[in-house]
Design goal:
By secondary structure, this protein is an alpha/beta fold. The protein has 13 helices and ten strands. 45% of the residues are buried. The chain binds calcium ion. Keywords: Glycosidase, Hydrolase, Signal.
Length: 334
């Protein structure tokens, strides 16, 4: 009789091993590990950062290690990120605060969504020195980190200044600029993420990254979800993360000042930032060119043979395919 408990222990061990082995087993030869990623964002102004964070969290190719909120009221931005991460069950992700500057409440387009949110109650870490957190992460990572940047970049410029070796250990994927095309297919413009701090972007693009890959307005400026793609996301009310994205959008729509957003039941706004998240794991649907780019003092990104080179997604191979892919990804469908 005394042998039975021992046999049970052995049986349990075998059972446990068989359950756990898919988790702890080494990946098959040739399989890629998820890419460590920093999401550098001005979440809380335009709503596309919220969509992009949800997309990132739903991308198995990417391993989110840090959200670095930058520019204006970074605590407000951190609250938006924290509430989304909490809803996604990802409070393992720390939030770093970047370079802050004043921001009026009227500019905080998701404020009602986080007005009562207590950032000190976030179960993950909120790091006042987000620049230091970025440096520590990149310098200690065994794998090169991809910095996916979808806002103006003062915190990144500061990080490069503080740790000049940072860029050589990382890859930069950014939603920045307007090379041949501007907003709505119009003429080139000083794109917002550049115009806020052109000197910072100039310093970032000049740094010796392992790779620089940009989506300017040329590709990201005409992406949205509408029709069946949008309807499916709108109707995904049982999915807490997508419900949070739509809630955030409904809060944002009546507050945004740079457009009349009366179409939020029908389609998304332009989802600029989602293209940068996509480029962090695939380039299949875009055409890229290596371009030497100068950032002007007034925020234009112009071709200049003396500028640092970047790989730039200038055209879509399959624009409709990307929008469909994005919807499927958000919905966790293949
Ligand atoms: Ca953004």
């Amino acid at each position: 009789m005394r042998r039975f408990p021992f046999i049970r222990v052995i049986a349990c061990a075998i059972l446990l091993t068989s359950w756990l082995s898919p988790v702890f087993a080494a990946p098959p030869a040739g399989a890629k590990l998820p890419i460590p990623v920093v999401f550098h964002t001005d979440i809380g102004t335009d709503i596309d950062d919220t969509w992009a964070l949800a997309q990132l969290l739903r991308s198995p190719e990417l391993d989110l290690k840090l959200v670095l909120v930058d520019t204006n009221d970074t605590r407000y931005r951190a609250k938006v990120a924290a509430r989304l991460l909490e809803i996604a069950g990802r409070t393992d992700v720390p939030i770093g605060l970047g370079v802050a500057s004043p921001m009026r409440e009227q500019e905080q387009n998701q404020l009602p969504w986080v007005r009562d949110y207590d950032l000190t109650a976030y179960r993950g870490r909120v790091l006042d020195d987000g620049v230091g957190a970025l440096i520590e992460l990149v310098m200690n990572s065994p794998e090169p980190v991809s910095v996916v940047s979808v806002g103006a970049v003062p915190a990144l410029a500061r990080a490069i200044e503080r740790e000049p070796k940072l860029a050589s250990r990382a890859r930069f994927v950014g939603m920045h600029g307007s090379v041949d095309i501007g907003y709505g297919g119009g003429p080139v413009v000083a794109e917002a993420n550049v115009k806020v701090d052109p000197a910072a972007l100039r310093a970032v693009l000049a740094a010796p990254w392992q790779d620089v890959l940009l989506t300017p307005l040329d590709t990201c400026g005409n992406v949205d979800l509408d029709g069946a793609n949008y309807h499916a996301v709108w109707c995904a009310t049982a999915d807490p993360l997508l419900r949070a994205v739509i809630e955030g959008y409904c809060v944002f729509a009546p507050r945004v000042t740079w457009m009349k957003c009366d179409f939020f039941t029908q389609r998304s706004t332009t989802l600029f930032d989602c293209v940068a998240v996509y480029l962090a794991y695939s380039e299949d649907l875009v055409e890229t060119e290596t371009v030497r780019i100068k950032v002007t003092d007034d925020g234009f990104t112009v071709r200049d043979p003396a500028g640092p080179s970047a790989r730039v997604a200038l055209r879509w191979k399959d624009h409709a395919g990307f929008e469909s892919h994005l919807a499927h990804r958000l919905l966790q469908q293949r």
